[in-house]
Amino acid sequence: xxxxxxxxLLLAGGGLVAYTNPPxxxxxxxxxxxxxxxxxxxxxxxxxxxxxxxxxxxxTVGDSIQGGxxxxxxxxxxxxxxxxxxxxxxxxxxxxxxxxxxxxxSARAFEKYTKHPPHYSFDYKQAHFTVLDNSRSDEMPAVExxxxxxxxxxxxxxxxxxxxxxxxSWILHVVLGDSNFPLHKLAKRYGVxxxxxxxxxxxxHFELDGITYLSMASSGGHLRDDKAYGxxxxxxxxxVTVNGDAVRFExxxxxxxxxxxxxxxxxxxxxxxxxxxx
Length: 278
Known about the structure:
disordered N terminus, about 280 residues, about 20% helix, alpha/beta, 6-stranded mixed β-sheet, 8-stranded mixed β-sheet, globular
């Protein structure tokens, strides 16, 4: 008699979503910042190319709207949701960015349109994902660290763990090789191997005590500096494949006219752009 396996995706405050006989691997997409100062057409192209990968779900790193004005935020969110209509067959897990949340009203709007609170977590197969809210602070707020510790305690059995936030609050500590900051200590204690952020619009990769820290390339927000690909300034989406406890990041530069379609892995990038100055 054939055995049927049913997987439940657990959402904070969102009930259960069932998947029958799921494939043996996890494939999910990461979308970089859409804003600030969105470049017309880029985010739409990032989603078209993401769709070609047929991921199980997608995670954003924040800044879905330009924001900053309580009077126009609803119209902005409605525009984004209309743009995403062709892709609603995918579960989209939004991370709150500083362009998404700047006030109490905008925090409520984020929850209304994304169907997620500013911080939350979910499980998919053997992987656990924690989304933190540092939208209004360059530092990771104490309340977020408290939430993170409780969340990781409750999901200690998951072999693969990811932390997402918009701002890379960790970046100065990691650049200096400082292991003595709260988020890193929690990640080490509970076996988190991947910490991912946006905000900079630049592809960077850091390793500290066996933990991978990634700053993701833009998916629409303007490119800074001299816009040099080798320095991490380009438009992209990322496909992440998880097999067992092995994780592979494929950073996919957008095709013309927004890029050259170059493909790299996280290992190809370092703290100042492409490793080895390629």
